[in-house]
Amino acid sequence: MCEAAGGVMSGHEHLAQALAACGRDGFTGELRITGTPGGTFHFGDGRVVAVESPGAPGPEALLLRSGRVSGEQWAELVRESGGSRWPATALIAHGYAGAAQLRVVCALALHDAAFAMAAGRVEDCERRATAEPFAQVPLGEPPLRLLQDAIRRLTALAALPHPVHPDRERPVPSGTDNGSGALRRELLTHADGRSTARDLAFRVGRGVYTVTVEVARMLEEGLLVCAGPATPIAVRSLPDGDELRPRTPTPVEQLPSPTRTDLPRRKPGSFFRLRNGMPK
Amino acid sequence: MDHQALALEMRGLREQVTGITDTAVAAADGLLIAADTADSIDPEGLAALAAAGLGLARRTAGATARGALRRTVTYGSHGCAAFYAVGDTALMVVLGDEGMDVDHLHRATQPTLNRIGSILTDKATEKAPEGV
């Protein structure tokens, strides 16, 4: 059996206070959350315009992992956008996504990252003012409404018959049922006993909340089971009788100092002789 | 060398930094010592690549007067591979997905590298059975 998701997650109050203060002050800049997974809330005039967290795939990961855009195409779009972190205009111009689709992807990613941080451990919140916010949604969300949405999701997850935490259980497939639906099939393919719901979300390019709920349902239905103790790490004996030899430093080859040499001097008429075969 | 302590350090780092998918420790010449990797990764080949990559980076740092090499990181669209030297005798590989905070990884890795260095050079500890 998997360990049930705990009740109220730690650090909620601290996070709620910091978010409320940013909204009240009409803050523009970053609110950096240290903890696990931690992340950053980006504010524009007191509203949350982007959220980034190692705990949830961002819009870039969602687009790349879903196969909508290849890595090479993304690199080209970033170059075309002058190195922009979020080349939205180029994505639309090249037809990789519509403007409405991008807005939906960004809004989903924003809520998902807030959920991941609320589900984790919050140690500290630190503001960093910036002139221009990193914005992925045009209008932005009121910060407390965003947090309330994350808590509502956590409560819904905890109420499932087999609740899981996004960053704890590492399930493996059970039985021979291949599952119905593309997401379930992908989760069964990638659940290797090493990956949490968060890891699987990155792997399949879907939101961490969506994947966590699906993993919980699949555990309940017996399609997945929680892996037992982690596979032991095989450690080999050291070479040369338990002693490592220091690396032999390779002497750095000094480039020959450039000596000034005259360029070959053109001989007048050489080209003409070459073309016409005239004697010297 | 305390095999159990090395395994605990590798697993502890994976649990400490969100997004780490695989870790490995190898001798400086690329001979694999321990791997906590998915089945899709060839740990022996990875260790050899890390040794070659660190060697090339060290020579590049020397040839360009960039000082002592700290690490090499290869970034891809689906994540990154970081190679760290463990003293002068070994190396550590950390693979992470695109969500991993690489700055956090570098901070978290420093004490781990020191402890792994001590574990690898500690001759006093009695060997634990393999596969801890």
Taken as a percent bin, the fraction of beta residues of chain A is 5-15%
State the share of residues found in helices of chain A, binned by percent: 40-55%
Number of helical stretches of at least 4 residues of chain A: 11
Question: How much is the radius of gyration of chain A in Å?
Answer: 28 Å
How much strand content do the residues of chain B show?
25-35%
The CATH H-level homologous superfamily of chain B: Dynein light chain 2a, cytoplasmic
Instruction: Give the radius of gyration of chain B.
Output: 14 Å
Structural class of chain B: alpha+beta
Straight-line distance between termini of chain A: 95 Å
Number of strands of chain B: 5
Oligomer: heterodimer
Determine the CATH topology of chain B: Beta-Lactamase
Low-confidence stretches of chain B: none
The tally of structural domains of chain B comes to 1
Biggest interface, chains and residues, is: A-B, 43 and 44 residues
Walk across the major sheet of chain A and give the strand order: 3-2-1-4
- Helix proportion range of chain B: 40-55%
SS elements, strand count of chain A: 7
Number of helical regions of chain B: 3
Protein name (chain B): Dynein regulation protein LC7
Pfam families (chain B): Robl_LC7
Organism (chain B): Streptomyces canus
Organism (chain A): Streptomyces canus
What would you say this structure looks like, in words?
The complex is a heterodimer of chains A (about 280) and B (about 130). With about 280 residues, chain A is α+β, with helices and mostly antiparallel strands. Among the domains of chain A are: about 10-150, no CATH class; about 170-225, Arc Repressor Mutant, subunit A, CATH 1.10.10. Helices cover about 40% and strands about 15% of the residues of chain A. The model of chain A is unreliable at about 1-10 (pLDDT under 50). By secondary structure, chain B is of the alpha+beta class. Chain B has one domain: Dynein light chain 2a, cytoplasmic (Beta-Lactamase, 2-Layer Sandwich), CATH 3.30.450.30. Helix content of chain B is about 40%, strand content about 25%. Chain B contains 3 helices and 5 strands; from the N terminus they run αββαβββα. Chain B has helices spanning about 5-15, 45-65, 100-120, and strands at about 20-25, 30-35, 70-75, 80-85, 90-95. In chain B, a hairpin with a 2-residue loop joins strand 3 (about 70-75) and strand 4. Chain B is globular. The two termini of chain B are about 15 Å apart. Strand 7 of chain A pairs antiparallel with strand 2 of chain B.
